[in-house]
Specification:
Elements (H helix, E strand, L loop, with lengths): L7 H5 L18 H6 L21 E5 L45 E6 L5 E4 L5 H13 L4 E7 L6 H20 L3 E7 L8 H15 L12 E2 L2 E7 L11 H13 L7 E6 L15 H5 L5 E4 L8 H21 L3 E2 L2 E2 L23 H13 L4 E3 L35 H13 L11
Helix pairs in contact: 3-4, 5-6, 8-9, 9-10
Length: 439
């Protein structure tokens, strides 16, 4: 259950018409056109939360990868479709977003229908209004901010790069408008040998053209221990990745020490078995040498336990020992929690709702376990992940009917997981000694 599986969607980039209607040809873009649109922040700013440290914060991953025909991205039904189609019986999402608050300009009509015969709508992450709405939700429910996911393989072509940059710019504006923090999280999944150079090239563009992490007008970019945070996810896994630990070592050295583009606090996403070199980790002691570059270590745990009881055991066995190890290395530690898991529509061989949410109790138990283990910061996977059923943003209890199997929030209000995550921040910081059940 690794998020690298979803990179198949970036490779295929299927196009499909909404609700069976003819769609205009998707636009093409040149690299020069894409780069010319990259510029420093010029938008409004509200009084932000403290952005000088990740300690005391609960943040989420923000995929921002959902697109639709005609939304201007040129990508068609990205991350909605399966085998080129987004229609009953052919889709890749297990949760259905609640778009009841969205404007007509944000709603994208689909071929799906609800029980009363009405059309079902989704959204596009390419839409500025929608991304800003998501950040307003973060403010409303006191979620501290997000790491904007940036798959390196999606920065190599102008069309994909343009979408990545558009979402990042919208997130930058949303974080500044609504007083949240944000930072870039690069995902190495899908890269072949030598592919880490694409990340280096992309980071240079972001620094040179958007002044990311350097722009004094941008009050929302997350810093930690005096430096801007850059996350690199996917170091040390044993799932046959094309890039090597030696390449990762050079990459992290560049992000940390390059005289122009370095000077960053490095957050490194690693396998669960990173410390003991077992389970999902490469059995190479070189991993420990590479991680000497890391300022923050964050093991991926989605799918590694499946109930409040097994989550508590994982925290006792792994999180406590990981934390002790990191403290000995003068590193910080960012545990990952998740609300549940389901990817049946994308992979029918996997049962629907394979890791049940238990009306929020599964996620709540992980927040409690992380705090008891000594965690000072927590990462929630994910804010908007419909594909693997891990989203915490507003999803509906009345998904479309017909072919396809969807999960829901088990009767909880659509904002229940946002509310729980906000409460978890106060609980983590010791502002309350009780973490209420989701409601």
């Amino acid at each position: 259950m690794l998020r690298s599986f979803l990179l198949l969607a970036f490779v295929a980039a299927p196009l499909c018409g909404a609700a069976g209607a003819a769609q205009p040809a998707e636009p093409n873009f040149t690299l020069a056109e894409v780069e010319s649109a990259m510029r420093p922040y010029e938008g409004p700013i509200v009084q932000p939360i403290a952005r000088d440290s990740l300690r005391g914060k609960v943040v989420a991953g923000y995929q921002g990868w959902f697109t639709a025909p005609g939304d201007g991205s040129g990508q068609g039904w990205r991350h909605y479709s399966k085998q080129g189609k987004f229609e009953p019986g052919q889709c890749s999402i297990d949760l259905w977003p609640d778009v009841s608050e969205f404007s007509d300009a944000e709603k994208v009509v689909t071929p799906f229908r609800h029980a009363d015969g009405s059309r079902a709508f989704v959204f596009s992450s390419h839409n500025r209004e929608t991304v800003l709405r998501h950040f307003r939700w973060m403010q409303d429910y006191e979620l501290d901010g997000v790491f904007v996911q940036r798959f390196v393989v999606a920065t190599r072509g102008p069309r994909d790069l343009r979408h990545c940059n558009t979402v990042l710019a919208h997130c930058r504006e949303g974080a500044n408008r609504y007083g949240r923090v944000y930072a870039v999280m690069y995902d190495l999944s899908g890269l072949q040998a030598g592919g880490t150079q694409f990340l280096i090239d992309d980071w240079k563009r972001l620094v040179d053209r958007m002044r990311l992490g350097r722009d004094e007008a941008d009050k929302a970019y997350l810093r930690h221990d005096g430096k801007p945070v850059v996350a690199v996810w996917g170091v040390g896994f044993n799932d046959g990745r094309g890039y090597t630990l030696a390449e990762c070592d050079k990459l992290l050295d560049f992000l940390r020490d390059d005289p122009r583009y370095g000077g960053n606090t490095l957050l490194v996403g690693v396998p669960t078995g990173w410390r003991t070199l077992d389970r999902d980790a490469a059995k190479e002691t070189a991993l420990h040498e590479v991680l000497r570059h890391a300022d923050i270590v964050s093991p991926w745990t989605v799918g590694r336990y499946h109930s409040p009881e097994t989550a508590a055991r994982h925290a006792e066995r792994d999180w406590k020992a990981d934390l002790a190890h990191c403290r000995g290395q003068k590193q910080d530690y960012l545990p990952v929690v998740f609300p549940g898991f389901s990817w049946h529509n994308m992979r029918p061989e996997s049962p629907s709702n394979v890791i049940p949410r238990l009306k929020g109790e599964f996620l709540r138990s992980q927040f409690i376990a992380a705090k008891r283990a000594g965690a000072e910061m927590i990462y929630v996977a994910m804010f908007d992940e419909l594909d693997e059923g891990t989203a915490i943003f507003k999803c509906t209890n009345a998904p479309p009917i017909g072919a396809g199997t969807f999960v829901d929030y088990e009767g909880l209000p659509s904002d229940a997981y946002l509310r729980l995550t906000g409460w978890a921040g106060r609980y983590l910081r010791g502002e309350t000694t009780n973490l209420p059940a989701a409601r």
